[in-house]
Amino acid sequence: MKYKNLLMALPLLGAMEVALAVDCSNLTDWQAQSVYTKGDSVTYQSVSYTAKWWTQNQNPANNSTTYAVWNKDGNCDASEPVPQVTVTSPSNNTSIIIGTPIDLAASVSHPQNIAIERAEFFIDGTLIATDNTAPYSVPWQAQGLGSHQLQVFAVDAAGGRGESSAVNFTVAADDFPPGDPNFKIVGYFPSWQGAVSDIQFDKLTHINYSFLLPNADGTLQPLENLSKMTALVNSAHANNVKVGIAIGGWNGGDDSAFETFAASAQGRATFVREVMAFVELHNLDGVDMDWEYPDPGTSANNYALLMKELSVELRARGKFLTAAAVALGYTGGGVLESVFQDIDFLNLMAYDANNADHASMQYAKDSIAYWQSRGLSKEKTVLGVPFYARPTWKRYRTLVQENPANACRDSDGTSYYNGIPTIRAKTEYAKLNAGGIMNWELSHDSKGPASILTAKWEVANGLAPSYTCQ
């Protein structure tokens, strides 16, 4: 048997490729336990990174996007040819049952036929094994439920170091209930913040780009950051995710344009015509109506007429129609029961109840109970959860950056939000009592292992948690 050097795996994330070359001769390797402050530079897997602010235990390769703590400077300069590495096992996007023994393998060659000293196998950025002889492979027993990355590095006799592209795979459990393929995971994505490249498309079914605003005559205002929406649509469709345009939003509490145009047949016709042209022009999959809020009475009747007319046109073209609705209470009466027939599902904004525990588990249950008591089907009920805190309005990602322990609780002492355990519990409840789960909004999420979108996705798909809360 070939000599193998096996090491214990740790839950870190893998390296990303960069194009520039920099001098790393005076830099030290990144250490998880070390504290780094703004301007400190390190190397990690032959790449140079510089800290933007205070950080500890934040893997540079996984925290170097636009809004993350590390800036990726470039590859450490290597003028000589390096080994060429390709992962041959497992295949990309493979699913492996936990506990299954498999061989991790890679093919290695050198453009100048320099001898290869070893191949290093990294899972999620952590070295788990090395192999000194070809063919390069190491035995591994699948562990760590959830998504992972394998990357293999090869070192030649001259010290050159080559790397493979990352291969994604999933470790799944055979004793967890499978996910419902019809369960929806919906995320809102605003025009004014967040990067399309940061979105975890593999953990979503629908994304609503926010917000398109109407005028009082039913025409539409120019959309903010149209190029961003175009990039979103292209990336989402490449990942089989549907994109809708969210129309309205809070807008400072001003819904006067909706009230005016919805009150007349001409205004509604103009609005429907313009919305359909917008959807077709930009290759969108549907519309999410965010009129906040039609009041009971005349306004509710006009809203119902508008939704019926919009539904007819969208369904004729195979497009979806959804709506965002208040969690419960008086304003809920502004959405008549007849609207339930015209929508694909209703996004319940079960948050902002107050400035304290504004999105409690009980509030979520009460919201679902309220709408379903009025006749909304389980399949058309989508529970909303917040990715932010009140009253500080801090993003969840900011809370986690300030203190990683915040990921596992619902308050940091001044802010109230939903941490990982509550998000998991709400998703479990939604699996039993609703047809999906929604969030406002995607750019607030942590991009590290403490992602609450990941927590939702794992529950929805019957996977055990990948992030441990003590």
UniProtKB/TrEMBL annotation:
Catalytic reactions on record: Random endo-hydrolysis of N-acetyl-beta-D-glucosaminide (1->4)-beta-linkages in chitin and chitodextrins
Membrane-spanning intervals of the chain: none
Enzyme class: hydrolase
CDD domains found in the cross-reference section: ChiC_BD
GO molecular function, one term: chitin binding
Keyword Ligase: no
Gene Ontology annotations of biological process type: carbohydrate metabolic process; chitin catabolic process
Gene3D superfamilies attached to this UniProt entry: (Trans)glycosidases - domain 2, Carbohydrate-binding module superfamily 5/12, Glycosidases, Immunoglobulins
Signal peptide location: 1-21
GH18 domain segment(s): 183-463
InterPro entries to which the protein is assigned, alphabetical: CBM5/12 (IPR003610), CBM_sf_5/12 (IPR036573), Chitinase_II/V-like_cat (IPR011583), GH (IPR017853), Glyco_hydro18_cat (IPR001223), Glyco_hydro_18_chit_AS (IPR001579), Glycosyl_Hydrlase_18 (IPR050314), Ig-like_fold (IPR013783)
GO cellular component, one term: extracellular region
Keyword Signal: yes
EC number of this enzyme: 3.2.1.14
PROSITE patterns with a match to the protein in the record: GH18_1 (PS01095), GH18_2 (PS51910)
Name listed for the protein in its UniProt record: chitinase
Organism (species): Pseudoalteromonas rubra
